[in-house]
Amino acid sequence: MGYVELNVLNNTVPAPAPQVALGIDLGTTNSLAATWREGRPSVLRPDGRSGLVPSVIYFPESGAPIVGREARDHAVVDPRNTLFSVKRFMGRGLADVAQELATLPYAATENERGLIQLEARGRRYAPEELSALILRKVHDVASTALGEKAPTKCVITVPAYFDDAQRQSTRDAARIAGLDVLRIVNEPTAASLAYGLDQRDKGHVAVFDLGGGTFDVTILSIEDGVFRVLATNGDTHLGGDDFDQRLANLARTALGAEHGDELTRDPAFQQAARQAAEHCKIELTNQPEAELHLMVPHKRIAWRRRVSRDEFEALTADLIERTLDSCRRALSDAKLTAGQIDEVVLVGGSTRMPVVRRRIAEFFGRIPHTELNPDEVVALGAAVQAQILMGGRRDMLLLDVTPLSLGLETMGGAVSKIIQRNSTVPCEATEGFTTYADDQTGIDFHIVQGEREMARDCRSLGRFKLKGIPPMPAGMPRVAVRFHIDADGLLTVSAKEQSTGISAHIDVQPMHGLTDSEVEGMLKSGYANAVEDFAARRAADLKTEIGTMVLATEKNLNAGRAGLDKESIRDLEDALRDAKVAVQQDDVKALQRARDEFERAALPLAALLMNNVAQKALMGRSLGDV
Ligand code: ADP
Ligand code: MG
């Protein structure tokens, strides 16, 4: 996998007035805009305030929805009408997110297309609409900070694990918000640019991003100022929220024992516990002990308990372990050891926790970068990327990778991988296919994603059909199937029959995004089942091969009968019968035996047919010559 350099400077005409675009970090928990000012990226802070917009929307009884800090305060009082963590639902279906919905205080349903809808004040909203409200607020804050209308051109970041549907959802949200997306960029990609790591001559970088709801680790290599993404791993359901939950559980257990389930199931209680927990957690970042202090006014509850940092770290030790497991997997994918990483970058508000800094320093054996605010670094990097795309400073782009392999189901249910996982995007690959039966005028393509050998064990991304192939003998049509992943990670698959030029294509936008556990599960099971898979694949291939031979033999046997001796015919008929029995089972050895036996028995018929064909061809030639 070589790297690609994109020279964007060459394609852009210098603008008379300096044009700028926004870099937007559309976060699960917080969103933020930055832009290029005076030769460097800077966060847009109105009146010196932070500029972070909590990704929370409150729907009041009447009037426009309220977004951001103010909305977050409503969560305790009116949790049913306060929507947060919307990013988790982008491009998802109910089944993908059933588990987390159970813990959220607001309601969700599915529309007729199986896409998720969140409910507030009796109205249903698509996640895209809600993200659009957040983006609009971010844009407003940016305008206030700039003192004029902020640009509508922007770069928006997404977690590295976002799949096609989730990236597409993000684009849709921006369109709804009236923004013009120059590019969707992976968050770790942006963070690397913010740290200007392209200034290094050579080396390896690990970007560790632990936010409120998502976690990614990405391994990059740098050579002569050019980045290459070697591997990415993570968990889109692991973040600061999980640390909060552990503290909230302390309150839940204590108060549940005292007041019963009725209290702990109360959405207002849950929300209050969550906020108290986060507050306590943030205090523990700065001091060795803090108070978990919970008030639920309408239940007349005021509860407090002291928590030490040691206790908190013990309560959350497994969460840190999970992030380190991802680091190990990413390193192994990149074929590197922790000692070969030259720079480590911490991203996301949760990396402020001392335990994260300590464990990461231990793990990689070096002090991580924390010079930039970890919750601003992604927006800053997005602004750098925006500047690049507007024709600014740098001529190099950091390239992303596709986290899972992409391929097509072939006859018998095996998968032909066309783009390998961890391929740098944008990328494309083409592979040749042909027909299975004579006079077949259409081919069905089934696009799948995953590491397993059999299509049924991978995720189905979509199907399409190439129609109108002129009748030809099996194996004659030459169909080139091209997989193209653009810079945003969106996949297009097209198929073209070479002799006739007929083509079909599909933009792959799966109905639901992958859950991270699906991605993880697919990666893990790819390793765990390698042996079993190989056998299943071999069996499928053998069955296909035998199937083709059976069809060909049945078609030609009668024509060939006259030219064959009785014994050969009986021999072939026996082999034919045995082969039909063998394909009913999955026993690789038996299939192999049947195939070999069949091949041997079919030899006389094949020789005869070849002779006939050759004769016909010769006759054709001599006729033509006349
Ligand atoms: P996201 O990328 O998911 O939108 P951020 O990078 O803004 O999230 O991180 C938000 C998370 O960071 C929240 O869980 C928040 O509680 C946590 N966080 C912010 N500041 C601190 C701190 N000082 N100590 C511990 N956690 C913090
Ligand atoms: Mg983030």
Your description of this structure?
With about 625 residues, the chain is of the alpha+beta class. The chain has four domains: about 20-240 and about 320-400, Nucleotidyltransferase, domain 5 (2-Layer Sandwich); about 240-320, Alpha-Beta Complex (Actin, Chain A, domain 4); about 400-515, Sandwich (Substrate Binding Domain Of DNAk, Chain A, domain 1), CATH 2.60.34.10; about 530-620, Substrate Binding Domain Of Dnak, Chain:A, Domain 2 (Up-down Bundle), CATH 1.20.1270.10. Helices cover about 40% and strands about 25% of the residues. The chain is built from 16 helices and 28 strands. The strands form eight sheets. Strands 1, 2, 3, 4, 11 and 12 form a six-stranded mixed beta sheet that branches. Helix 5 (about 185-195) packs across helix 12 (about 375-390), helix 14 (about 530-560) packs antiparallel against helix 15 and helix 14 (about 530-560) packs across helix 16. The longest helix is centred in the last third of the chain and has 38 residues, at about 590-625. It starts with about 20 loop residues before the first strand and ends with a helix. The chain binds adenosine-5'-diphosphate and magnesium ion. Adenosine-5'-diphosphate (ADP) binds next to helix 6 and helix 8.
